[in-house]
Amino acid sequence: MAELQGLGAQLSQAERAGVEIVAVSPDPNERSQQVAEGLRLGHRFLADRDLAVARRYGLVHTGGGPDGRDVPRPATVVLDRDGVVRWFSITRNFQVRPDPDDVLRAVRAL
Amino acid sequence: MTSGRLAGLSVVVAIGAVAAYVLLLRVAVVRNHPEGYVVAFALATALAILAVVRARARRWPAWLALGLASLLLVAGAWFNFVVARVPDAPTALRVGEQPPDFTLPDAAGRPVSLGDFRGKKPVVLVFYRGYW
What we know:
The complex is a heterodimer.
Chain A: H1 2-10, H2 13-18, E1 20-25, H3 29-39, E2 44-47, H4 52-56, E3 60-61, E4 71-72, E5 75-79, E6 85-90, H5 100-108
Parallel strand pairs in A: 1-2
Antiparallel strand pairs in A: 3-4, 5-6
Chain B: H1 3-23, H2 28-31, H3 35-54, H4 60-83, E1 103-105, E2 111-113, E3 123-127
Antiparallel strand pairs in B: 1-2
Helix pairs in contact in B: 1-3, 1-4, 3-4
């Protein structure tokens, strides 16, 4: 979640209006809603309960969760207005997330 | 430096590294260099070894510091280099290409598709592990 907090805090009002932040996790909707309200974020939280989307994207850390459950592999993707990938970052160590400054730079470069 | 002081310094470095990492987790530089705490535990272990070597009469503080620091070093290294490592796998993401479209329910239960934003807004798509 640190990446979401950092990004939300650093996006200026103008950028917030112009960029859609879509956060995908296996969390149920109620949990995501609580997180969104708790962090005062305007992000859209989407529930990928069975990791179907993460799997289609090749972003599953097999057995990486508690009790050997599969969890998403943390990743951040910047898409331009036409839906084309312009920048992305996929973690090799689940403690590591992209620097919000790098994400912002990619957004500003669109 | 006396053995007691070396042992004390070792404990401060070891506990300080844990506290600094936890407290500064939101700072990208700290968060993104988890090997930093492993290095700090290694330093604390080296200081404790020196304390054990120099110990004359009262040896237990040095051994206590060595026990703590070496335990943290083994646990920290195992977590950072084994547990937290995500094996590389091929992904559907290519710069310059459209990723697969999908539809998922948002927090209110309404279906949202990635394609909804095409031609309208740039998107930052974040996959995260979620809370358990």
